[in-house]
UniProtKB/TrEMBL annotation:
GO biological process, alphabetically ordered: SRP-dependent cotranslational protein targeting to membrane
Lineage: Bacteria, Bacillati, Actinomycetota, Actinomycetes, Micromonosporales
Annotated organism of origin: Micromonospora humi
EC number of this enzyme: 3.6.5.4
Protein location: Cytoplasm
Domain remarks: Composed of three domains: the N-terminal N domain, which is responsible for interactions with the ribosome, the central G domain, which binds GTP, and the C-terminal M domain, which binds the RNA and the signal sequence of the RNC.
Name of the protein described by the UniProt record: Signal recognition particle protein
Amino acid sequence: MFDTLSDRLSGIFTKLRGKGRLTDADIDATAREIRMALLEADVALPVVKGFIANVKERARGSEVSEALNPAQQIIKIVNDELINVLGGEGRRLQFAKNPPTVIMLAGLQGSGKTTLAGKLARWLKGQGHQPLLVAADLQRPNAVGQLQVLGGRAGVEVYAPAPGNGVGDPVQVARDSIEHAKRAARDIVIVDTAGRLGIDAEMMQQAANIRDAVQPDEVIFVIDAMVGQDAVRTAEAFRDGVGITGVVLSKLDGDARGGAALSVREVTGQPILFASTGEKLEDFDVFHPDRMASRILG
Ligand code: GDP
């Protein structure tokens, strides 16, 4: 992930080494190159525009430390702007005042929702919580079975419709799971919902119905970072159709160009809460904008 962008940026910074002072022309040329590098990495255009405007403004201003040489100054500004687009300080999961905290997962089929449900459950359990996983994805064959396997690995109970009862109603399953969580003294409920390969009205409506039934404290949109510009459009559709409160980037271990990761915070207006970096349950961590920025800058 980000390999090409990292290489491009380091090439741009190298050219500034040895310069005593940056002229406006130097700043403009550097900004243009950074712009190209971001666009080629599939970063959404409005995000690129804001990013470049900030870089230029700060590079021209005198706020950056005199102790840094021009190349270091630009690196510092780009680093700060990367942290900024990735969410600044970051935000942590919000818990309900009166448990259970309800976390609903939404996203396209294949985005990594079910895997994330298992990861989140394992992580929360490690923090001393008593999570309940809820199989409300009744669309994809075997999503329920997959969640049961993941729950088994994480040592977390899975609430699922009884087998042999036909397809079942995911809204009802989700609603009943909250009652079950209260009875079983679970303090967090993680609801896995159905995705489709593309966005459709019926799917969005079902997600909205589940949301209304469970009144989630967090609606987490899972975005496959490999998908590029499409991921951003999908994020907008979920923001408008279901209302999301946070984002999880999945498949950050892949060799995508990284544009989705850099765009989604700004496009959705919601923070990136976690990052998923592999198929195993432990390939998962809280998202740190500053660490991601350092990784991009190499
Ligand atoms: P869902 O349809 O949204 O529930 O997606 P799944 O959780 O079933 O994930 C789809 C595929 O992506 C599965 O083969 C997962 O093992 C894989 N997957 C999920 N998260 C990651 C990740 O962070 N990295 C990689 N490499 N694969 C992942």
